[in-house]
Amino acid sequence: MRKFVPFSLNLRGHLVEFTRPQIMGILNVTPDSFYAASRQFDADSIASYAECMIANGADMIDLGAYSSRPGADEVTEKEEIARLELGIRTIREKVSDSVIISIDTFRSEAARIAIEEFGADIINDISGGDLDKNMYATVASLGAPYILMHMRGTPSSMQSMTEYEDVTADVLADLARKLSILNDYGINDVIVDPGFGFAKTLEQNYRLMRNLELFHVLGRPLLIGISRKSMIYKAIDRNPEDALTGTTVLNTISLLQGASILRVHDAREASDAVKLVNLTLNS
After folding, report:
1. What pLDDT, on a 0 to 100 scale, did the predictor assign at position 154?
2. Strand ranges (DSSP E) for 65-140?
3. Residue 188: phi, psi to the nearest 5?
4. Burial of 45 (0-12, 13-18, 19+ CB in 10 A)
5. Is 229 part of the annotated catalytic residue set?
6. What is the pLDDT of residue 38?
């Protein structure tokens, strides 16, 4: 078991220290994200959903406007930016001007506008910079924290790209290589995400979960996003709607290996897991 290690991020010019694992609630302004309950389409439903997540323990909100589900519809950059504007402005004006907002995008221009014009705080890039050659330079110019996730290919091709010599070693090596490049750009506020479910088989996902503690060698906060994913519901022969218990089990395993941030659909259960693991490790 590994205790949580405090970390800090520069958020819009303010250094914020985090002394316990953070809960990042998922809110999708998309019609086709894999978990239907996370989809919100208008200002009132966005505000209500965000308020509920915060009340249930979410410290951050991760706003997605382009589904990364295999087979999801293509979304133009213009449409993605419009959806992000609706989500961010609604949260800022109707819910909270201080809650931390992460935007889930691999497009550098969407990231730039969301941070500079709409008031988002963090860029969460599922492609780790692979799908937009301008992403790293944009992140550097914005000075925003960056979530570096491991993925191969695109959401539509990634599940055909699961050949690894050793999945843990290969993912670690890829993240380390990109961290070095980000460092060359002067980007220091980086959170790493092993990318559960992205270009990994079910068995490879569990190998990564077993070896999660090894990712601390990268020296960065560790984000874990396994909420209601197929690695859970396929393993227990359920569907996303019935995968909350499995999600809580794996979130707990992640916390016991020093996870810094849990990206979840269900903030209350994740918050409870954080409290109970903290009591276990610190009593």
Report:
1. 85
2. 100-104, 122-125
3. -110, -30
4. middle
5. yes
6. 63
**C-beta separation of 91 from 53 below 8 A:** no
Residue 196 has which token pair?
């559960």
Q: How many CB atoms lie within 10 A of CB 157?
A: 11
In angstroms, the CA 60 to CA 101 distance is 6
Cβ(11)–Cβ(4) under 8 Å? no
In the set 39, 83, 152, 229, the catalytic residue is 229
Residues 6+ apart with CB under 8 A from 228: 34, 35, 240, 241, 243, 244, 247, 265
Pairing of strands 122-125, 22-28: unpaired
pLDDT in tens, 55-103: 999 999 999 998 776 655 678 999 999 999 999 999 999 999 999 999 9
Name the token pair of 34. 């894999």
Tell me how far CA of residue 134 lies from CA of 88, 119, 139, in angstroms: 23, 20, 9
Residue 47 to residue 93: CA distance in whole angstroms: 9
**pLDDT tens-digit series, residues 184-216:** 999 999 999 999 999 999 999 999 999 999 999
Question: Using an 8 Å Cβ cutoff, are 174 and 207 in contact?
Answer: no
Q: Is 263 a catalytic residue?
A: yes
The burial class, CB within 10 Å (0-12 / 13-18 / 19+), for 201 is middle
The token duo for 59 is 């410290």
Residues 198/151, Cβ–Cβ less than 8 Å: yes
- Angle between helix 244-256 and helix 267-282 axes, rounded to 10 deg: 30
* Residue 117 CB partners (closer than 8 Å, separation 6+): 85
Which residue is catalytic, options 207, 234, 263, 275?
Answer: 263
The pTM assigned to this predicted structure is 0.95
Three-class SS state of 215: helix
Q: What is the pLDDT of residue 118?
A: 97
